[in-house]
């Protein structure tokens, strides 16, 4: 299964397996999975959240809708971010919190190397984060906004034939879900897949603290 469809299929299959029912998930649940993917919630975090809901001793019956798992999954992702970025609880005698300055400088330099009118300004904003007094979680939120602006700027300069090719590949990767997803969710999923392929094709830096 292609990378884009794999996220949707993996969440659906895992929830249906835990639920013990052969019924497929609903249109509203597709939108929830799309939202989780857009937020960057890793599959293991989603599955752990689903597990927690189904393992609750007070539950009289198995959850029938994926929406019952939403709060648990998203709370788990918040904990994941805090721990990953140094904001969560840590045991004693472990490595000190990560210093992102070198990582951010590498991202800024990669942006500056792009043939893009806004490259210098975007790189400067990344460097501003190095001396920021915000928490790492706050810095990550700012970097996410910069990352979206970078993709917008790159897309505006893209040649039509390249844009068409990436769009076709993105649609093909989600073809098996076209009839099952609401049109709004399917279109948004294709758009998300398109941007991931754009980043990969042009080897664009991912403006984030994750992955260091």
Word description of this protein:
- This protein has 2 domains: 1-84; 98-212, no CATH class.
- Helices cover 63% and strands 0% of the residues.
- α2 runs parallel beside α9 (183-201) and α3 packs across α4.
- The protein is built from 9 helices and no strands.
- It is mainly α and 212 residues long.
- The longest helix is centred in the C-terminal third of the chain and has 21 residues, at 136-156.
Count of helices?
9
- Poorly predicted regions: none
Shape: flat
Biggest β-sheet strands, sense, barrel: none
Q: What share of residues is helical? A: 55-70%
Order of helices and strands: HHHHHHHHH
Give the overall pLDDT as a whole number.
Answer: 87
N- and C-termini, Cα separation: 27 Å
Beta-sheet strand percentage?
A: under 5%
Taking all Cα atoms into account, the compactness measure Rg is 19 Å
Q: What count of domains describes the coordinates?
A: 2
Question: Top keywords for this entry?
Answer:
single chain; 212 residues; mainly alpha; 0% strand; flat
Compose a concise summary of this entry.
This protein is mainly α. The protein has 9 helices and no strands.
Give a topology summary:
Blueprint (H helix, E strand, L loop, with lengths): L2 H17 L7 H13 L3 H12 L15 H15 L16 H12 L6 H10 L7 H21 L3 H14 L9 H19 L11
Helix pairs in contact: 1-3, 2-9, 3-4, 5-6, 6-7, 8-9
């Amino acid at each position: 299964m292609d990378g884009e469809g794999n996220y949707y299929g993996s969440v659906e299959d895992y929830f249906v397996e835990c639920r013990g029912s052969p019924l497929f998930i609903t249109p509203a649940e597709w939108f929830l999975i799309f939202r989780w993917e857009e937020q960057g919630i890793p599959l293991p975090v989603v599955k752990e959240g689903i597990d927690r809901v189904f393992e609750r001793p007070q539950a009289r019956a198995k959850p029938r809708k994926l929406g019952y798992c939403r709060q648990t999954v998203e709370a788990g992702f918040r904990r994941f971010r805090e721990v990953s970025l140094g904001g969560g609880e840590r045991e004693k005698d472990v490595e000190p919190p990560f210093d992102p300055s070198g990582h951010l400088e590498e991202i800024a330099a990669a942006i500056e190397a792009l043939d893009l009118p806004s490259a210098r300004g975007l790189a400067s904003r990344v460097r501003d984060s190095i001396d920021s007094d915000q928490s790492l979680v706050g810095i990550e939120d700012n970097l996410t906004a910069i990352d979206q602006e970078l993709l917008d700027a790159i897309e505006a300069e893209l040649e039509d034939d390249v844009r068409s090719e990436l769009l076709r590949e993105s649609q093909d990767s989600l073809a098996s879900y076209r009839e099952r997803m609401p049109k709004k969710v399917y279109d948004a999923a294709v758009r998300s897949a398109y941007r991931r392929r754009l980043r990969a094709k042009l080897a664009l830096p991912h403006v984030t603290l994750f992955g260091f």
